[in-house]
Amino acid sequence: MARIAGVNIPTQKRVQIALTYIHGIGRTKAVEICNTVGIPAERRVNELTDDEVVRVREAIDRGYTVEGDLRREVAMNIKRLMDLGCYRGLRHRKGLPVRGQRTSTNARTRKGPAKPIAGKKK
């Protein structure tokens, strides 16, 4: 089991797919990392040598913000918006959609499960 950026990545998957288990690395960045390190696309994690794992780890540390640092940065950005009291910050504070979606119907992911309103029959 290879451990990169504090995450145990699955050993049976291809390297490009396994790297996406790290928060902040998607398919595009995973392919980019594999190309810079020189790992073929069909190589699996359990076939990697220790040297290759170290090179991947160094490439991620050097060029990308991932895991804890990225989560902290995003949380600080949201906190900044809330402290400013701007529109987006108020939407975050109220737990409503931030990017202009409708809320009269839908928006259940952001608002949570529907709460019945007393006396609203008919």
UniProtKB/TrEMBL annotation:
<dbReference type="GO" id="GO:0003735">
    <property type="term" value="F:structural constituent of ribosome"/>
</dbReference>
<keyword id="KW-0699">rRNA-binding</keyword>
<comment type="subunit">
    <text>Part of the 30S ribosomal subunit. Forms a loose heterodimer with protein S19. Forms two bridges to the 50S subunit in the 70S ribosome.</text>
</comment>
<dbReference type="InterPro" id="IPR018269">
    <property type="entry name" value="Ribosomal_uS13_CS"/>
</dbReference>
<feature type="compositionally biased region" description="Basic residues">
    <location>
        <begin position="108"/>
        <end position="122"/>
    </location>
</feature>
<dbReference type="InterPro" id="IPR019980">
    <property type="entry name" value="Ribosomal_uS13_bac-type"/>
</dbReference>
<keyword id="KW-0687">Ribonucleoprotein</keyword>
<feature type="region of interest" description="Disordered">
    <location>
        <begin position="95"/>
        <end position="122"/>
    </location>
</feature>
<dbReference type="GO" id="GO:0005829">
    <property type="term" value="C:cytosol"/>
</dbReference>
<dbReference type="GO" id="GO:0006412">
    <property type="term" value="P:translation"/>
</dbReference>
<dbReference type="Pfam" id="PF00416">
    <property type="entry name" value="Ribosomal_S13"/>
</dbReference>
<protein>
    <recommendedName>
        <fullName>Small ribosomal subunit protein uS13</fullName>
    </recommendedName>
</protein>
<keyword id="KW-0820">tRNA-binding</keyword>
<dbReference type="GO" id="GO:0015935">
    <property type="term" value="C:small ribosomal subunit"/>
</dbReference>
<dbReference type="InterPro" id="IPR010979">
    <property type="entry name" value="Ribosomal_uS13-like_H2TH"/>
</dbReference>
<comment type="similarity">
    <text>Belongs to the universal ribosomal protein uS13 family.</text>
</comment>
<keyword id="KW-0689">Ribosomal protein</keyword>
<dbReference type="GO" id="GO:0000049">
    <property type="term" value="F:tRNA binding"/>
</dbReference>
<keyword id="KW-0694">RNA-binding</keyword>
<comment type="function">
    <text>Located at the top of the head of the 30S subunit, it contacts several helices of the 16S rRNA. In the 70S ribosome it contacts the 23S rRNA (bridge B1a) and protein L5 of the 50S subunit (bridge B1b), connecting the 2 subunits; these bridges are implicated in subunit movement. Contacts the tRNAs in the A and P-sites.</text>
</comment>
<dbReference type="InterPro" id="IPR027437">
    <property type="entry name" value="Rbsml_uS13_C"/>
</dbReference>
<dbReference type="InterPro" id="IPR001892">
    <property type="entry name" value="Ribosomal_uS13"/>
</dbReference>
<dbReference type="GO" id="GO:0019843">
    <property type="term" value="F:rRNA binding"/>
</dbReference>
